[in-house]
User: Fold these one by one.
Assistant:
Number 1:
Amino acid sequence: MTNPIRSASNELRELLMSAVGRLVSEGKIESVPLPAFNVEIPQDKSHGDFASNIAMAFAKPLKSAPRKIAELITEAVILDGSSFERIEIAGPGFINFFLSKRWFSGVVADVASDGGSYGKTDTGAGKRILVEFVSANPTGPMHIGNARGGAIGDGLCSVLEWAGYEVEREFYVNDAGNQINKFGKSLDLRYIQLCSSDGQALMEKCSDDETLCQTIYDDDKTFPMPEDVYLGADIIAHAKSFYDKNGSSYADKPEEERTSALVDFALPKNIQKLEDDLLKYRIKYNTWFRESTLHNSGAVTEVIELLKKSGYTYEQDGALWFKSSEFGDEKDRVLVRENGIPTYFVPDIAYHYNKLVTRGFDTAIDILGADHHGYIPRMKAAMSALGVDPGRLDMMIMQMVRLVKDGETYKLSKRSGKAVTLETLLDEVPIDAARFFFNLREANSHLEFDLDLAIEQSSKNPVYYVQYAHARICSIIRNLEAEGHSVENLSPDKLDVLETTEERELIRYIASLPNTVDSAAKDYDPSKITRYTQELATLFHKFYDKCRIKGAEESLLKARLSLCMAVKITLKNTLDMLKIDCPEKM
């Protein structure tokens, strides 16, 4: 896989070590163990394309001034046939290296050759990663935080895939426990209401489900509800659908039987809605893992026994406790209540044990909400107690989103008057904008999402700006092809004419994509890709404004057209990574 920056860096290391070996063999320096030294890219381009501190690293073992060592090394380095054309010594002994025009030409040729795979690396080859994200409560619709988590999670999966990892996407369905009990109770109360005389009268008055649901939702006096239930209109809609199918036939059945029937009726519909909304958002999961399978398979009971055998549990006041404080947690945690019912913590432990041991993923990544900071140490403590390396479990905390419209905080949906959900957000803004905007900043940073900017068709809108750069290149290529100038895969020697500052800056940045992918994968930060696309678009516009293509001498025209194609390929690959469309016309 092509990685121009890494190849040049490795080549430079070899050049430097060969030079040192030559100096030793010639008796110009003593033979001492090779010290660790850096090869890096200076922020200031006047300091070269690469720089090394090798002379300074050798100063102590050779008992000599760094600048004197640098002079010896620069004299011994052989650049002929390499990717570098000249060397300079700077300051007390830094050695700066400048890339040759052939290196820049080679980048353009390599991108054309790699095409849709340019930017991919093999850094994670052979390693399996499971990324669990969104995992919204199936008792209701997805909120705006889930929308951000979806974009970040799916973007991270794509980045990891481009870095060579084998990645699986997973949604954890909480279909057991207290929230399902609460869901059942909510459905049951609404169903009984609809079976009442007031409910019958209301159904006759309201001609459609949405009107009925909203009327009941808003009318607290006629249909009061306790505080410990879900109050959304979606609960009413499910109860109404169940009533339409079964009438009042369940009204006289035992509450447990009625509640179970209502949950069995409504929960699959909610889960299907979650899946449909996420597919619309361009997210397709490998697995929808149900919490109930952990209970039904005995995995929850098994993990309790494993923790007991580990020696990190104790009984107190009739409850079973986990000594999580011995692993750095702020306090010990209850595993099984005195009534014999496990806390929510236990199936979560069983779930992560399933990921890392039962299914054998090398790494499991959870993307969690901002209120889950305390969850991390206790789960890592549980893995340690079970003999699982806690370093294999990574948890990303995602901060809140602030929606802004007309310069003010925006909390309500026009359609329902309630909190904005993923579905209503995608009614307001394009999917491309949603996925791009949610990945503009690191997950642990608060995000302000400007709804007006997301639909604005101008360079102020970052996704529009990047997409326009792609469309502009397509237009340039179309227009020149109409005049008989087709894009060709030129050999590097025919690309050597690309030597202006703007051309080299653009090529240098194109060359950095594989390293950017690796960096984004290492840091679990897909926002590095959105920032990369914006900078690439900016550099392209600067190049196009300064470097004439149409009307240029034929060999230069063809070379610049090849550079345009390299930018087009690179832009498309980065946007494809984020599942954002690349329009050819705008």
Note: The mean pLDDT is 95.
Number 2:
Amino acid sequence: MFKILLSKMKEALISVLPVTVIVLVISFTPLVNLSVTETVAFAVSAVGLIIGIALFNLGADLAMTPMGGHVGSGLTKSKKVFILLSVCFVMGLLITIAEPDLSVLANQVKDIMPGGATAGKWLLIITVGVGVGVFLVIAVLKIIFHKDLSSLVMFFYLMLFALCAILAENGKFGLLPLSFDSGGVTTGPITVPFIMALGVGISATVGGRDSNENSFGLIALCSVGPIIAVMALSLMSKGDLGTYDVSQYAIENYLGAHFGFLILDKLKDVAIALGLIVGFFLILQFAILKLPKQKLIQIAIGIGYTFFGLVIFLVAVEVGFMPIGFKIGKQIAEFNQPLLVVLGFVLGMVVVLAEPAVHVLNKQVEQITNGGVKKIEMLVALSVAVGISIGLSLLRMIFKFSILYYLIPGYIISLGLSFFVPKIYTAIAFDSGGVASGPLTSSFILPLAIGACDAAAGNANVYSLAFGVVAMVAMTPLITIQLLGFKAVMSSKVRAKITMRRILAADDEQIIYFK
């Protein structure tokens, strides 16, 4: 166990260190003026973030992934489809409530939700959870009845853009970027292992010649659900969102006596979120699953790691990364806006290079394509693409235009590519949308964009111009992976043609006949 924890610590260190180094280097330049308190708080928070992510990922491996696999295979073997679908809905809801990336996002927009403050935060989280639950049911039905992912994805994205038109017609366009961001943050480090394991468990039990392909696509569909759910919630919000409250990014709010209250608040939130998951799983255990004691002990230990990792992660994010990301974005936007775009590109490249899930994805794609797409090829392509997506997001903020000018062409290209590449590439690409938008995107890149927007466009435009950066990062793999798949397919066809031409052009006199 200790060796595994060290391995997780190494992954988390690689994930957090590049951004930390860039921020500390910038703090010693005239571009940004950070106080000693802010610099120390950021450095300590970076250490806390490394520990939190490591414990959290270890807990996900020990608890969330096995829970997903056991629920998927155990309920499918029972051949009670209604029970399977009901459990998938509830587990999708509860797992999403515990998702740290969603909690970070909800804290930043809770004031504009109906009910405001704490009630608004939980309303957004539960709304997103319901969206995930409903679309997890749809994804499970896709596996059971062997339906094509591409046609489902195309249908639901067409529905999304129809809802965009309804929002515009009703003057509720302001929350559109937040709606798309909700889809990106939902597929985080708790949700992804559980849902992928659930898909593998169900697909392996159902069987069929396309069982490996059918196990993909759950994340893709579960990313659509929150977008539709938040769009529906937007119809209930007021049309004029007003000014954005930037006081939440003041580091003084989290130091001194406030620090103790922050820890207690996070302990309570995480206990509620994980307690709901554990309670429901225990009901399934006694009623249906009947797992051996050893498995339950492993899952219990994993829940413990997840709990402490999640608390440390959320505290570190709020104390160090969100306030510093906001201040860097604000001060660089005031100093030089083109430089801000360059910084966004560099940070985008670093963030995706450092994301451990990206390296797992790269290895997976290389294996599936039998080397047709190399790991280094994937890494470079994703790195550049995510850097460009963040740079473009900041450029949109400077020139003040709608995010739909990016999203509509982007999704048209990604959906169009699905007709020209093998289905496995499309499934992996749409599943990977949440992989690139990891913990650092919502906890650092988004506050940086909000700070920049506050300086360059005014905080009245934050909801329409700063939000949407997570959605841009999540859209990147959809195009990148399918383009690499298209390249691999075309290269294979060219090689086959060259080989056939050489065979047909061979000199018969060089053929040796054996008698």
Note: The chain has a mean pLDDT of 84.
Number 3:
Amino acid sequence: MVFERPKPRQLNQPNSPAVNRPTRNNPPANDHRDGNRGGHGGNNNDRNNRNGGNGGNQPPIPSPWLNPENEPQPHPDASFVEYLRWMRVTSENDVIKNSTKVQILQMAEQGSKYSQRLQQLTKRTELIAQKSFKVQCPWRIRVGGHRGPESILLPAFDALGIPYIPSSSLRGVARTQAIREIMAKNNIEWQEAEKQIAPYFGSVETNNKKDQAGKVVFLDAYPLPNQNQNVLAVDMANNIWQWDNNSPKYSPNPNPFFSLEKPMFTIGLRLASNCQDNDILEKVKQWLIKGLQAGVGSQVNTGYGQLNPAGIGNHKPESEFFRVEFTIEGQLIHGRQKLQDIKQPYQKDRDGHFRLSQGKLKPNTINYPEVRSVAFKSMLRYWFRSFALGVLEPGQVQEWEAKIFGGITTPNQKFGWLMVRTLEIKPKAVKSSQDEQKQQGILTLHYSLEIPKDKQDNLQKLIKNLTWLMFHLGGIGQGARRPCYSRQKHPYLRGSTLIPESKDSFWKLLKTPKEFQQLFQQRLEAFYQGLQALGVNFNYRQLRSCGTVNSFTWFEALDINAKIIVVSNKDDDNKGYALETLHEYFHKLETPNYSEAKNLCGGVNKDYPFLNRNTKREVIPSPVWIADLGNYQVVTVFGANENPRRKYLETLQNKVQIFPL
């Protein structure tokens, strides 16, 4: 990835006053957080941003409804369609536009109950079906769907607007599972296997009239009503990295939509009128169960759509080849931004005035922490791309990234060989506010249905070692480029630390940086060897250069211009040596070279006051990653051969280089 930065201008910025930062175990005193995000409203920037300075002439609060004078009041049994059909045409203001979408979706999530209707539909399925069973989704599912107002992704819903799994989808799952099993058992091609399932599912191409019609009727599947939880749940998709020609582009694009969170469905089957063979019904049921366990709907390779028979506990599918328990400390993984008050979605300061940013209303949202498999898959994909760009041409990287992780753009539209799933583990007890800043779960890695059998062992080698590298190079979720540390202002915990909770020897860390150097290089060589064994030809001891690097330009690639080092931690039990040094060096650069400091710690275009005011704000991620492993910290620096990044590395003492090899 390349960033073209403007040249710095001398800025007269006062030095920031020193503060005594708390440790993780000693939270700050006088914690005066109020209900509004942003903590201590009424600061100088907020007051300067107000029109008139006294709350007058502030922009009016936009209504989410098409006709605000006649605000609709949907009945609690109404579907979410009744909310979206009255959604107003949104503003050109992106902040208001996104806030309206979030507000409407959250209203529908909280207001749409329709439990009584779901009870009727579930009872109807049980009465019609000859065989019925319940399946439970351990995370989220979104089947079918289309685009609604403002391109909001909607799940499949029936004529009354209630989400469900269509019978055609269930038939497709069972049929596909049957074909795959017959192909594997008899070592035949797809077309031949299709002929063999005709006695079960029917076929218009068979000459046998008895097999032209299917023998089993599939019923629509509805979620069971849950009094303690809404059926629909606001979800979020965010395509952070996109390929722009031959360079990855950092461009976050959060898009809220609806999915179903941890639903339970009643599945119903019965024999068609042309069949009385219960063995056929039972066989189709078993195919359907296995197919649902593999996943149904969209984003199956990213943890969505898994449906397990209810009551069997944690199911370990045959496709799984690796798992590890983990703990995340710090700013955590977030699935959505949740409005604190859906009737008043914008922030206010202590004086009751709306808070503005660049003349725009600021949404009053809080982070909704959630262990998300999509976050782990994205991070694995990121590190794969970074390492691969150091040894392969960009075109090859795009091709193999799509083969392994999937792709949606031509010519690399692929399902992907890797499936990533997670299971969240709730902490047993919460002792303090600091302990709440943790997430625990289990990461499981699987072969997808698309991977050739002869590629499985090599993919396993590559992905297992890539997972190890991911755990030891940085965190995950918000603040992933810095280890978890505490401070005296909001947010009181920053950064992210990803910890494997396993006693397996594969995860055992060695005590000194020199010992870690050998272990890291073993894992990295195994990753490269796994990639070579998949069919890629390269020499990992001859790194390539992704392009010219200078103070304002670097690539997020572990090529000849990057470095990874290990430094021992000193007495600081909060930030650690490498991060403390980075922040000290960063603050030295703030005066007078503030813009140069952003070439070390990242920022946004608003930090460059000499840019045209109409320039779109662009987030510039830091070229420095730091991971805290206890006795030492691992520091990854992109474009390390140019200042200010080179100066930062020279400042670190007693360092051991682990990359390049």
Note: The chain has a mean pLDDT of 84.
